[in-house]
Every structure is written in structure tokens, then in C-alpha cells.
Design brief:
Layout: H1 10-19, H2 26-33, E1 53-56, E2 59-61, H3 64-74, E3 88-92, H4 98-106, E4 112-116, H5 119-131, E5 146-150, E6 163-168, H6 177-181, E7 183-193, E8 198-205, E9 211-219, H7 227-231
Parallel strand pairs: 3-4, 3-6, 4-5, 6-7
Antiparallel strand pairs: 1-2, 7-8, 8-9
Helix pairs in contact: 2-4
Family: Belongs to the methyltransferase superfamily. L-isoaspartyl/D-aspartyl protein methyltransferase family.
Main location: cytoplasm
Pfam families: PCMT
Length: about 240
């Protein structure tokens, strides 16, 4: 039903995903309504298509229904009030910043860290977030707001760990151990894994530190690769 979810406006896109049962949570619906996709894609004409789009530098923004799947999977681990989850949120391969913004609205009092290894994408994502009114600096207590970093997302961001949630927006050949290490106790990671044939994996870490890996469904993502290879188009 994903291909039927495209709309002419952001509101229509979200309404169609709700109608097609791609979004089942009012919390996710509200967060995605607050983030206008046209601010995060190069061509606003295609902003509300439920399909992946090129955003430059050999990178893509995932289809809206894939972002909805990610949010659904991670929802129960959100670091919000009266929750056992107190870590930050990490968005690896943050690209144009769209899902980083959605994650901010899902947990507005928590720090959300976006990381991408292409400086041009980081710079553009900051402009996109500013256009959308997303706060870029954390509060005095270090919580809330968004930080956008340029770096190798496979290594995570140790200085901001632990993370209650880690979302990875590109496919790794294997699950990067540093990301597992930086998961909070408890914590969850949503990551596409594989070369050629890929699957979404759910990585859970319990309060005792036990790690459980669950394969969810098949996907097709661009690879999580070196910045130099991405610049050369070796994807």
C-alpha cells in the first residue's frame, strides 16, 4: 500500500499513510505532521511522493513509509517522561535531516544527534532544520534539541552515548560493534544489514546488557560506506 500513499501536501501524505495503516500511532502521526518533507528534498514537486529520492552526494532520503516503519519500531524505547529510557537518540546517515527532525518531535526533551560523513549534507541538513524551526542547540542541562555532526556514523558518537535509540539510514555489511556498545541499557537499534540482499535488523540491549538480534523484513538501502567512496559514486 506504500505506493498509494503519495499526496499533494504533507498533510495528505500523512493522512494517506494513516489510511493505509502504515502509521498506527497518533504520536507518530503528530510528529510527522510537524516536519514538512518539502524542506528536506531538493525538488519540492516530488516532496510528498512515498518513494526514496536523491538528495545529492550519492545519498538518498528514504521513502516516508520506511521512516514510519522505523518510528513504529523504535517508539517503545523513546526517552520521554515517566519512561525507563533516559539516553539520547542517534540518527546515523542523517542525510537531509528529515528523520532527525521527526525523532526530535517524538522526544522533544531528549538530545537527538544526527551524524553524516558528507559535510555538504550536514551543512544542508542544518539549513533544513532551521527552516523547519527545529532547535539546533541542546538546553543548559544538555537535553533537548538537535546536534548535527560530520563523521563516520559506523563509529557512532561516544561523547553523546549511551543512546536509548539508534536509527541507521544506510545498509551496513555487518552490524557495527561501536553502535551496539553505545546502546543504552535498555536500548534499541533499527539498522539495514547486508550486501546486495538486505534486511532490517532490530538490535535490543536489555537492562543487564544482553544483546538480542532480530531480523524483521527485506529492504533495499544505499550502503553505509566510506565518504571517499560515496564521493566517487562507488556505492
Amino acid at each position: 500500500m506504500a505506493w498509494r500513499s503519495s499526496g499533494r501536501t504533507n498533510s495528505e501524505l500523512i493522512n494517506n499513510m494513516v489510511k493505509n495503516e502504515l502509521i498506527l500511532s497518533p504520536q507518530i502521526t503528530e510528529a510527522m505532521r510537524k516536519v514538512d518533507r518539502k524542506n528536506y528534498v531538493p525538488d519540492p514537486y516530488y516532496a510528498y511522493e512515498d518513494s526514496p529520492q536523491q538528495i545529492g552526494y550519492g545519498a538518498t532520503i528514504s521513502a516516508p513509509h520506511m521512516h514510519a516503519h522505523a518510528c513504529k519500531n523504535l517508539l517503545s524505547f523513546l526517552p520521554v517522561a515517566n519512561s525507563p529510557h533516559t539516553g539520547a537518540i542517534l540518527d546515523v546517515g542523517s542525510g537531509s535531516g528529515y528523520l532527525t527532525a521527526v525523532l526530535h518531535h517524538l522526544a522533544p526533551d531528549s538530545l537527538v544527534v544526527g551524524i553524516d560523513h558528507i559535510q555538504g549534507l550536514v551543512d544542508q541538513s542544518i539549513k533544513n532544520l532551521q527552516k523547519d524551526g527545529v532547535p539546533l542547540a541542546p538546553g543548559k542541562d544538555g537535553k533537548g534539541g538537535v546536534i548535527m555532526l560530520c563523521g563516520d556514523g559506523r563509529k557512532g558518537s561516544p561523547e553523546h552515548a549511551p543512546f536509548s535509540i539508534i536509527h541507521v539510514g544506510a545498509a551496513a555489511p555487518v552490524i557495527p560493534q561501536p553502535l551496539i556498545d553505545q546502546l543504552a541499557k535498555p536500548g534499541r537499534m533499527f539498522i539495514p544489514v547486508g550486501e546486495g540482499s538486505q534486511d532490517i535488523w532490530q538490535i535490543d540491549k536489555s537492562e543487564s546488557g544482553q544483546v538480542t538480534k532480530t531480523k524483521l523484513f527485506g529492504v533495499m538501502y544505499v550502503p553505509l560506506t566510506d565518504a571517499a567512496k560515496q564521493w566517487r559514486g562507488e556505492l
